[in-house]
Protein backbone atom coordinates (compact mmCIF):
# COMPACT_ATOMS: atom_id res chain seq x y z
CA UNK A 1 0.00 0.00 0.00
CA UNK A 2 1.17 3.54 -0.68
CA UNK A 3 -1.26 5.34 1.59
CA UNK A 4 1.38 7.02 3.76
CA UNK A 5 3.20 10.05 2.34
CA UNK A 6 6.09 11.98 3.80
CA UNK A 7 7.51 15.38 2.88
CA UNK A 8 10.11 16.43 2.22
CA UNK A 9 11.90 13.34 0.93
CA UNK A 10 15.29 14.92 1.51
CA UNK A 11 16.32 17.67 3.92
CA UNK A 12 19.67 19.27 4.65
CA UNK A 13 19.82 21.61 7.60
CA UNK A 14 22.32 23.38 9.77
CA UNK A 15 22.54 22.85 13.47
CA UNK A 16 20.81 26.16 14.22
CA UNK A 17 17.90 25.72 11.78
CA UNK A 18 14.31 24.86 12.59
CA UNK A 19 12.46 22.58 10.20
CA UNK A 20 9.48 20.24 10.24
CA UNK A 21 8.81 16.83 8.74
CA UNK A 22 5.28 16.02 7.65
CA UNK A 23 3.49 12.70 7.42
CA UNK A 24 0.01 12.09 6.09
CA UNK A 25 -1.95 8.85 5.91
CA UNK A 26 -5.07 8.18 3.86
CA UNK A 27 -5.81 4.74 5.29
CA UNK A 28 -8.25 5.68 8.04
CA UNK A 29 -5.84 4.52 10.73
CA UNK A 30 -5.83 5.87 14.26
CA UNK A 31 -2.27 5.12 15.34
CA UNK A 32 0.80 6.85 13.93
CA UNK A 33 4.49 6.42 14.61
CA UNK A 34 7.84 8.11 14.08
CA UNK A 35 10.94 5.94 13.64
CA UNK A 36 14.61 6.79 13.18
CA UNK A 37 16.67 4.56 10.89
CA UNK A 38 20.43 4.98 11.13
CA UNK A 39 23.07 2.97 9.34
CA UNK A 40 24.06 -0.23 11.13
CA UNK A 41 21.54 0.29 13.96
CA UNK A 42 18.12 -1.24 14.57
CA UNK A 43 15.08 0.77 13.66
CA UNK A 44 14.36 3.03 16.64
CA UNK A 45 10.79 3.83 17.64
CA UNK A 46 10.62 7.49 18.66
CA UNK A 47 6.97 8.41 19.26
CA UNK A 48 3.56 6.78 19.11
CA UNK A 49 0.22 8.52 18.80
CA UNK A 50 -3.12 6.81 19.23
CA UNK A 51 -6.25 8.82 18.48
CA UNK A 52 -4.11 12.01 18.48
CA UNK A 53 -2.78 11.34 21.97
CA UNK A 54 0.89 10.60 22.50
CA UNK A 55 1.16 7.16 24.07
CA UNK A 56 4.89 6.61 23.84
CA UNK A 57 8.05 8.69 23.89
CA UNK A 58 11.15 6.53 23.85
CA UNK A 59 13.45 8.94 25.69
CA UNK A 60 13.78 11.10 22.60
CA UNK A 61 15.76 14.36 23.08
CA UNK A 62 13.64 17.48 23.32
CA UNK A 63 15.15 18.86 20.10
CA UNK A 64 12.62 16.54 18.44
CA UNK A 65 9.06 17.70 19.02
CA UNK A 66 6.12 15.73 17.59
CA UNK A 67 2.70 17.07 16.82
CA UNK A 68 -0.44 15.18 15.85
CA UNK A 69 -3.29 17.59 15.06
CA UNK A 70 -5.59 14.79 13.83
CA UNK A 71 -5.44 11.08 13.10
CA UNK A 72 -4.33 11.67 9.50
CA UNK A 73 -1.40 14.01 10.08
CA UNK A 74 1.79 13.75 12.05
CA UNK A 75 4.62 16.25 12.25
CA UNK A 76 8.11 16.13 13.64
CA UNK A 77 9.49 19.56 14.49
CA UNK A 78 13.27 19.80 14.53
CA UNK A 79 15.47 22.44 16.16
CA UNK A 80 19.13 22.72 17.10
CA UNK A 81 19.89 19.23 15.83
CA UNK A 82 23.25 17.52 16.00
CA UNK A 83 25.14 15.79 13.17
CA UNK A 84 24.42 12.41 14.79
CA UNK A 85 20.73 13.08 14.17
CA UNK A 86 21.34 12.56 10.45
CA UNK A 87 19.25 9.54 9.48
CA UNK A 88 16.19 8.35 7.60
CA UNK A 89 13.04 9.29 9.50
CA UNK A 90 10.13 6.99 8.83
CA UNK A 91 6.50 7.55 9.57
CA UNK A 92 4.04 4.70 9.90
CA UNK A 93 0.38 4.18 10.68
CA UNK A 94 -1.67 1.22 11.80
CA UNK A 95 -5.29 0.28 12.42
CA UNK A 96 -6.76 0.90 15.83
CA UNK A 97 -4.56 -0.49 18.54
CA UNK A 98 -6.26 -3.29 20.47
CA UNK A 99 -7.42 -5.13 17.36
CA UNK A 100 -5.29 -8.21 17.87
CA UNK A 101 -5.95 -9.55 14.38
CA UNK A 102 -4.31 -6.54 12.81
CA UNK A 103 -1.94 -5.65 15.61
CA UNK A 104 1.56 -4.94 14.44
CA UNK A 105 0.68 -4.42 10.78
CA UNK A 106 2.12 -1.01 10.20
CA UNK A 107 2.16 0.86 6.92
CA UNK A 108 5.24 2.93 6.28
CA UNK A 109 5.92 6.05 4.29
CA UNK A 110 9.02 6.36 2.11
CA UNK A 111 10.89 8.37 4.73
CA UNK A 112 12.70 11.69 4.91
CA UNK A 113 16.47 11.51 4.50
CA UNK A 114 17.80 14.12 6.94
CA UNK A 115 21.34 15.44 6.87
CA UNK A 116 22.50 17.77 9.65
CA UNK A 117 25.60 19.77 8.83
CA UNK B 1 12.79 -7.01 27.64
CA UNK B 2 11.50 -8.20 24.30
CA UNK B 3 14.05 -8.44 21.51
CA UNK B 4 14.67 -9.78 18.01
CA UNK B 5 17.94 -11.18 16.69
CA UNK B 6 18.46 -11.82 13.01
CA UNK B 7 21.47 -12.91 11.05
CA UNK B 8 23.92 -10.26 10.05
CA UNK B 9 24.28 -9.51 6.41
CA UNK B 10 24.96 -8.81 3.76
CA UNK B 11 23.81 -11.96 2.05
CA UNK B 12 24.73 -12.36 -1.61
CA UNK B 13 23.10 -15.07 -3.69
CA UNK B 14 22.82 -16.01 -7.33
CA UNK B 15 19.43 -15.94 -8.99
CA UNK B 16 17.35 -19.08 -8.31
CA UNK B 17 19.31 -19.92 -5.17
CA UNK B 18 17.60 -20.94 -1.93
CA UNK B 19 17.31 -18.25 0.73
CA UNK B 20 17.20 -18.56 4.49
CA UNK B 21 17.41 -15.60 6.84
CA UNK B 22 17.43 -16.64 10.47
CA UNK B 23 15.42 -14.80 13.11
CA UNK B 24 15.02 -15.61 16.80
CA UNK B 25 13.14 -13.68 19.42
CA UNK B 26 12.80 -13.17 23.14
CA UNK B 27 9.41 -12.16 24.43
CA UNK B 28 7.02 -12.53 27.32
CA UNK B 29 3.55 -13.68 26.48
CA UNK B 30 2.53 -14.58 22.95
CA UNK B 31 3.78 -12.05 20.43
CA UNK B 32 2.87 -11.84 16.79
CA UNK B 33 5.83 -12.14 14.40
CA UNK B 34 6.49 -10.30 11.17
CA UNK B 35 8.85 -9.96 8.26
CA UNK B 36 9.08 -6.54 6.67
CA UNK B 37 11.03 -5.72 3.50
CA UNK B 38 12.62 -2.42 2.51
CA UNK B 39 13.46 -1.93 -1.15
CA UNK B 40 16.06 0.72 -2.05
CA UNK B 41 14.77 4.24 -1.53
CA UNK B 42 11.50 3.13 0.01
CA UNK B 43 9.89 2.62 3.39
CA UNK B 44 9.20 -0.77 4.94
CA UNK B 45 6.47 -3.01 3.61
CA UNK B 46 4.86 -5.93 5.40
CA UNK B 47 5.97 -9.15 3.70
CA UNK B 48 4.26 -11.74 5.90
CA UNK B 49 3.18 -12.38 9.45
CA UNK B 50 2.10 -15.09 11.89
CA UNK B 51 0.05 -14.49 15.00
CA UNK B 52 0.34 -17.79 16.88
CA UNK B 53 2.57 -20.82 17.27
CA UNK B 54 2.84 -23.14 14.24
CA UNK B 55 1.25 -20.54 11.95
CA UNK B 56 2.98 -20.17 8.59
CA UNK B 57 3.03 -16.80 6.91
CA UNK B 58 3.59 -16.66 3.19
CA UNK B 59 3.70 -14.08 0.42
CA UNK B 60 5.46 -13.68 -2.96
CA UNK B 61 7.11 -17.09 -2.58
CA UNK B 62 8.50 -16.26 0.87
CA UNK B 63 7.54 -18.35 3.91
CA UNK B 64 8.17 -18.29 7.64
CA UNK B 65 6.83 -20.55 10.38
CA UNK B 66 6.25 -19.41 13.97
CA UNK B 67 8.22 -21.92 16.08
CA UNK B 68 7.52 -21.37 19.76
CA UNK B 69 9.73 -24.23 20.91
CA UNK B 70 12.79 -22.68 19.27
CA UNK B 71 11.55 -19.07 19.48
CA UNK B 72 12.30 -18.67 15.80
CA UNK B 73 10.70 -17.24 12.67
CA UNK B 74 13.15 -17.96 9.86
CA UNK B 75 12.43 -16.51 6.41
CA UNK B 76 12.80 -18.83 3.41
CA UNK B 77 12.37 -18.67 -0.33
CA UNK B 78 13.05 -21.52 -2.69
CA UNK B 79 14.28 -19.52 -5.67
CA UNK B 80 15.28 -15.88 -5.32
CA UNK B 81 15.14 -13.29 -8.08
CA UNK B 82 17.15 -10.15 -8.69
CA UNK B 83 14.04 -8.16 -7.74
CA UNK B 84 14.20 -9.65 -4.22
CA UNK B 85 17.30 -7.57 -3.48
CA UNK B 86 16.34 -5.54 -0.42
CA UNK B 87 16.77 -5.30 3.33
CA UNK B 88 14.66 -7.74 5.34
CA UNK B 89 13.55 -7.01 8.91
CA UNK B 90 12.20 -9.49 11.41
CA UNK B 91 9.90 -7.96 14.02
CA UNK B 92 7.57 -8.83 16.86
CA UNK B 93 4.63 -6.97 18.29
CA UNK B 94 5.04 -6.08 21.92
CA UNK B 95 2.17 -7.05 24.16
CA UNK B 96 0.81 -5.45 27.30
CA UNK B 97 0.58 -1.69 27.34
CA UNK B 98 2.41 -1.34 24.04
CA UNK B 99 -0.03 -3.29 21.92
CA UNK B 100 0.71 -2.71 18.27
CA UNK B 101 4.25 -1.45 18.82
CA UNK B 102 6.89 -3.32 16.85
CA UNK B 103 10.37 -4.36 17.92
CA UNK B 104 12.66 -4.82 14.94
CA UNK B 105 15.81 -6.77 14.30
CA UNK B 106 18.78 -4.96 12.75
CA UNK B 107 17.89 -6.01 9.22
CA UNK B 108 19.60 -8.29 6.72
CA UNK B 109 20.62 -6.93 3.36
CA UNK B 110 20.09 -9.37 0.50
CA UNK B 111 21.73 -8.91 -2.88
CA UNK B 112 20.76 -11.27 -5.69
CA UNK B 113 23.08 -11.43 -8.71
CA UNK B 114 21.86 -12.47 -12.17
Descriptive terms for the model:
heterodimer; A: 117 residues; mainly beta; seven-stranded mixed sheet; four-stranded antiparallel sheet; 55% strand; globular; B: 114 residues; six-stranded mixed sheet; 49% strand
Strand content of chain A: over 45%
How much helix is in the residues of chain B? under 10%
Q: Mean pLDDT of chain B, as a whole number?
A: 91
- Evaluate the radius of gyration of chain A: 14 Å
Number of helices of chain B: 0
Using the alpha-carbon principal axes, give the shape of chain A.
globular
Overall pLDDT of chain A = 89
What do these coordinates show?
Chain A has no helices and eleven strands. Chain A is an all-beta fold and 117 residues long. In chain A, the strands form two sheets. In chain A, strands 2, 4, 5, 6, 9, 10 and 11 form a seven-stranded mixed beta sheet that branches. In chain A, strands 1-3-8-7 form a four-stranded antiparallel beta sheet, with no helix packed on it. In chain A, a hairpin with a 6-residue loop joins strand 4 and strand 5. Chain A is globular and about 40 Å long. With 114 residues, chain B is mainly β. In chain B, strands 2, 5, 6, 10, 11 and 12 form a six-stranded mixed beta sheet that branches. A four-stranded antiparallel beta sheet of chain B has the order 3-9-8-7, with no helix packed on it. In chain B, strands 1-4 form a two-stranded antiparallel sheet. In chain B, a hairpin with a 5-residue loop joins strand 5 and strand 6. Classes of the chains: A mainly beta (117), B mainly beta (114). The interface between A and B is medium-sized, with 27 and 24 residues.
Amino acid sequence: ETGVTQTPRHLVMGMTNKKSLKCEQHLGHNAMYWYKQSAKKPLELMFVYNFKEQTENNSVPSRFSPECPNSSHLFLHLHTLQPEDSALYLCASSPTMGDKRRMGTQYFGPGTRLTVL
Amino acid sequence: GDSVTQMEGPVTLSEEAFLTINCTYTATGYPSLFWYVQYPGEGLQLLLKATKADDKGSNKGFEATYRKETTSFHLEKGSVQVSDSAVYFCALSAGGGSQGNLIFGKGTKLSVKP
